[in-house]
Fold this sequence. Notes:
Blueprint: H1 2-37, H2 41-64, H3 69-90, H4 93-105
Helix pairs in contact: 1-2, 2-3
Amino acid sequence: MKKIIVILLLGLATNLYSQNTSEERATKITNEMSEVLSLNPEEKAKVYEIQLKRFNEVNTIRSTYKKDPETKKAELKKVYKRLFGKLKNALDKKKMQQWRFYKRNK
């Protein structure tokens, strides 16, 4: 019984840690995008939600396919392609071009 409780606590701690990390990373990239692209509050909120979902999904994929690197790589690629589409829908074409230019020159 004690082993089960310890395993559950470790799982919960890991999950909470990865959520904080995801939230911190989403906040960091959202703030960077907001600064570079002069996002309004509505755009900033959309970008944050998109980024947070992305980081949570990436964490899930990495833990699920830890022992299968080929599948993990393919699944991560899908996430990044969807990310671009979601950002493209949330921001206008000009801002996406600015972001691409910024990322290339960074």
